[in-house]
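One such given next:

>
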Amino acid sequence: MIVAELMTPKPVTVAPGDTLQTALERMEAGRFRQVPVVDEERLVGILTDRDTRPHIGQLTHMRVATVMSAHPFSVRPSTPVEKAAHLLITNKIGSLPVVDEGELVGIVTASDMLRALEAVLGDTSEGSSRIDLDLEGSGEIQAATSLVRAICPVLGVGTYQRKRKQPGHEILYMLVPSTSAQPAAHKLKEYGFKVLAVHF
């Protein structure tokens, strides 16, 4: 998955010469906490609601350029989602402007990343449940998925590392219809797989 699939295209922006009041009104109207600052379609900064707080009472007199963060982190539309997520996490920021050939084309937020995670792991509100298996000593992925497919459809499958301190220790997850989760988990246990949890 790449950023272009998640980003909000043509985001609301402000100009360096706009007042902080104008910028705050745009953020409140759009219900977001940050807004890209552009000058002639070029990204020049980002302004967050936190940037405006120290200036309450002066919002109509101060310009965006005086408090914005110049040279913000940004990504390209072709950037892998995991790289964008890493930038958000490591830099403790809520959004990334998306720039193509110097021009702002979108914005991707932490909320967008959560939607991507939901898409990968599956939306449990749609009647699916997740079965987690410890792969260490429990056989192969193909054997586990084949066994479950004999009972019910497999809606999704993937792996993740349970703890960062245990590199190589992978957990297999399978999404199955909620009505089949317990029978599938029982069958996996019967065949020697270590079922860690069934998430409804």
